[in-house]
Amino acid sequence: MKESKVKKEKQEKGSWVTYRPEIKIVDCSVRDGGLMNDHKFEDGFVKKVYDTCVSAGVDYMELGYKADKKIFSPTQYGKWKFCDEDTIRKVVGDNKTSLKLCVMADAERTDYHTDILPKSKSVLDCIRVATYIHQIPTAIDMVKDAHNKGYETTLNLMAISIVQDRELDDALAALAKTPVGTIYLVDSFGALYSEQIKDLTLKYLKAMEGTGKQVGIHAHNNQQLAYANTIEAIICGANRIDATINGIGRGAGNCSLELIMGFLKNPKFQIRPVLECVQETFIPLQHQMEWGYNIPYMITGQLNLHPRAAIKIRASDKKDDYVSFYDQMIEEE
Question: Which of 60, 102, 139, 278 stands 20 to 30 A from 30 (CA)?
């Protein structure tokens, strides 16, 4: 696509003094943050995030996973790994607010036929299917199952930075024929730069053209680019935006909710409740668990590697031995 055409498409999406009402924010604080503590957040914490999202005008809140208890033991993981209906309702009741609730269902790790109830029996609004490229057939079946049960659906295609172009094209073509509502570009390793985000967002949009499906962005902050990359996707036309309060999330974390709210100009979004939540809840939480940009995460991001090695070293007594970690990663690359 010629540069002039790209510029024209960007200009058509909006300007610096207007806003696009079709942009929706998904808060992933509890789900993504739960990856750091095996989803053992107390109800009070989840309620605080829920109340904050309601007050701030957030469109969706992701509560956790629908994990298969035959694979993940409830004695090892907290209840937000499974998001049973009574667990959710204990915090949100019947959710008589405009905030929509969602959970993530991992392909091949969710007993979706059994554990995802019909929408008429659940307070949830949306099922977010997460999949790697080799799991696409299962993921498509999960989307169809959730759609037939009455839910909104998204599909998060993970680790996109290591997917081959032909495989991605085939996957997008297949997904365009499904009832999924939104396709997410997910930079799982925090490896992508804005130029790549632009190209991928435009590719996703072209693949979904004429289907009515939205394109979303889920960015990780390994190279301190989660916010910049999210902005780039928005400018290119992405309308579903994942973010977390104070950037909470496993490893380097995610695009910060307070940052993206400051960029978007929709007057329904209110930043003050988010800042209050950061001050009262998330700053104290950072004394208990670490997240956010750190050099080991930068190294794995630059090398386009899963951050598991960086997470491991940050939990060890050699957490600041950056040179040895760099040498190790270069040797294993």
Answer: 139
